[in-house]
Amino acid sequence: MRIRRILAAVIATAALAGLGLTGAATATATEQGAPSFVTPSQCREGGGTPRIDLPGNPCVGGTHDGETVD
């Protein structure tokens, strides 16, 4: 009886993990379609430097590297 409960918990966990991976893949595909803009403060908070003097006004470095500073 105990083994059945453990097995049911393992299967439920695996199913939920699979749904989470599917949701993450969908979110990534959606984000790639639209251009991303960040504010200068968001760029700095992410560890980057807003380079509005360069063509395209990129955020250089950090978590928003390459995103356009608006």
Characterization of the model:
By secondary structure, the chain is mostly helical. Helix content is 54%, strand content 11%. It contains 2 helices and 4 strands; from the N terminus they run H-E-H-E-E-E. The chain has a two-stranded parallel ribbon with strand order 1-4. Strand 2 (49-50) and strand 3 (59-60) form a beta hairpin. 13% of the residues are buried. The mean pLDDT is 79.
Q: What keywords describe this structure?
A:
about 70 residues, mainly alpha, two-stranded parallel ribbon, two-stranded antiparallel sheet, 2 helices, 4 strands, about 55% helix, about 10% strand
Question: How does the overall form come out from the CA principal axes?
Answer: rod-shaped
User: Which structural class is indicated by helix and strand composition?
Assistant: mainly alpha
Percentage of residues in DSSP E strands? 5-15%
Q: What is the rounded distance between the termini?
A: 60 Å
